[in-house]
Amino acid sequence: MNSLPKCPQCSSEYTYEDGEVFVCPECAHEWPKVAASAAEEVRVVRDAVGNILQDGDSVTVIKDLKVKGSSTVVKVGTKVKSIRLVDGDHDIDCKIDGIGAMGLKSEFVKKA
């Protein structure tokens, strides 16, 4: 399996590494490796509606969510302030009044 990026010029998948650059044999385009790695690092987190979420945003819960290991439930319409985006299965870290710190999935919230 080829893990090298496709050519940004012609979208060829037959690229190869040559020192500090990637090279496309079909169109002879060369581009630096650091540009390719910087493009892969950009991660976009979207809510259930498709809005882009950022650190510090406020969101509203769109579905009743059971809190794992507890009998409490986060109700629909609960507003969560000052979220933090993190890597992992639950991509939002937050603090909910009455419940405490927890992780949420972005698919169950919408931007407030």
TrEMBL record:
<dbReference type="InterPro" id="IPR013987">
    <property type="entry name" value="YjdM_N"/>
</dbReference>
<dbReference type="Pfam" id="PF08274">
    <property type="entry name" value="Zn_Ribbon_YjdM"/>
</dbReference>
<dbReference type="InterPro" id="IPR013988">
    <property type="entry name" value="YjdM_C"/>
</dbReference>
<dbReference type="InterPro" id="IPR004624">
    <property type="entry name" value="YjdM"/>
</dbReference>
<feature type="domain" description="Protein YjdM C-terminal">
    <location>
        <begin position="45"/>
        <end position="112"/>
    </location>
</feature>
<dbReference type="Pfam" id="PF03831">
    <property type="entry name" value="YjdM"/>
</dbReference>
<protein>
    <submittedName>
        <fullName>Zinc ribbon domain-containing protein YjdM</fullName>
    </submittedName>
</protein>
<comment type="similarity">
    <text>Belongs to the YjdM family.</text>
</comment>
<feature type="domain" description="Protein YjdM N-terminal">
    <location>
        <begin position="3"/>
        <end position="32"/>
    </location>
</feature>
